[in-house]
Structure formats: C-alpha cells, structure tokens
Amino acid sequence: MxxxxxxxMVKERLQAIRARIAAAAARVGRDPDGIxxxxxxxxxxxxxxxxxxxxxxxxxxENRVQEALAKYRSMQAAAGIRWHMIGHLQTNKAKAAVxxxxxxxxVDNLRLAQEIQxxxxxxxxxxxxxxxxxxxxxKAKYGVDASSLESLVSSISGMNxxxxxxLMAMAPFSDDPQRARPYFKMLKEMxxxxxxxxxxxxxxxxxxxxxxxxxxxxxxxxxxMVRIGSAIFK
Length: 234
Ligand SMILES: *Cc1c(COP(=O)(O)O)cnc(C)c1O
Known about the structure:
Elements: H1 6-27, E1 36-40, H2 46-54, E2 59-62, H3 65-75, E3 82-85, H4 94-100, E4 103-107, H5 110-122, E5 127-132, H6 146-156, E6 162-168, H7 181-194, E7 202-208, H8 215-220, E8 225-228, H9 230-233
Parallel strand pairs: 1-2, 1-8, 2-3, 3-4, 4-5, 5-6, 6-7
Helix pairs in contact: 1-2, 4-5
Pyridoxal-5'-phosphate binds next to β8 and α9.
C-alpha cells in the first residue's frame, strides 16, 4: 500500500527548488532573495495549491484566465498571494485578467496593451506588465518579434494605467538546458538596451525567464523571476 503525503511532497520539492535557485545564484555572485519563484499551477488542483501556499509559496502563475479566475476565487482567503498571468492573453480576456493578476507577463502586441490600458483605467488600477519576446523567432511561438519590441515599449510609455516592468521569454524546447543560454543572454541584452526608456511608467527591472528544465541557466544569465511548474507539482 502506498500513501501519498502531498503536503510533504510539495514542501520538499519547493525546498529542493529553492536550494537549486540559491546555488545557481551563488555561482554568479547574485543574491537569491532577489529571485522570485513563480509556482506555475496550471492544471494543478486547488488542494495542491493550498498546500504550496501553506508551505511558503507566494507567487502563483497561471496560463489560462478562466482557470485562474476559479482558483483566485477559491483562494481569496489566502492573503498575500501574487497572481501571475504567464500564458497567451487574448484581447477579449483583458478585462478579466486586469481583475485578478498582479503581473501579466505575456503582453506581446499593441492592441492587447491598449485594451489592458482601457480596462485598467476603468478599474482604477495600475496594471503591472512584462512584454513577452519571441527570442527564438519560431513562427509558432507567442511574443513580440525583436524588431517590433522597441516600438511597443515606446507606445506603452504613453499609457497611464500600465506599469511596464521588464521582459519575459521562453527558450525553445530542448533536452539540453545549455541550449537555452544564448536566448536568455539575448533577452537580457534587449532588456538592458531598453533601460534608456525608464521613466514614469517604465522600469525595466524584471527578467522573467527559466522553467523547470532550464531555470538554473536562466538565473546564471540574469533572470529575477523563474516560472516553475512540473518540478514542483508533477
Ligand atoms: C507551463 C509554463 C511554465 C512552467 O513550465 P514547467 O516546465 O512545468 O516548469 C513556465 N512558463 C510558461 C509560459 C508556461 O506556460
């Protein structure tokens, strides 16, 4: 007979991930406290999310607005959780997204930014966002093309209810995390270059990059937000 203790399991896995984050940070002389662990709970049940929060998870990442909405409502009691939208966001879901997310990582076109601005203004909210960049240039990937990034940033600089806090990207899928390194380097270079836009509603401080398979490489390359799902919950 096999017994599962999900709470213990999640706790141990979170501890193991934190230790790996700390080790990766130490390798490049960074402070691990400056790296946010976004626990990606897509397709993860509410009980498991509660367990994760009970053992210290503070940042929850979801990739579908509907699924996130249901979870957000049943987690209301757990104060202090920050909700992250990490998946592709359709313009017609912007209103719901503005209603629940502390940070939207996946803004990748002007029309979406304009709709977020409009909904945030109606909600009297300052909506924090990141721009998702298609660093690999693969056609099937979401994210703004590198060539259109600067004009999107420039447009957003005029949007009073949006706070642009940095960039997000996904490296192409690979069995070898080292293959992700050049893409992470590229994203950091783009972010560093865009710092000259820092002003009123732009503060290019965050780099959201790295998932279960490649977060250590991402941290070595400057990530300050890693989005980890399967290494904690599967
Ligand atoms: C699912 C997902 C993650 C987490 O992926 P894992 O490999 O499960 O850690 C991170 N970022 C985005 C955008 C995702 O959709």
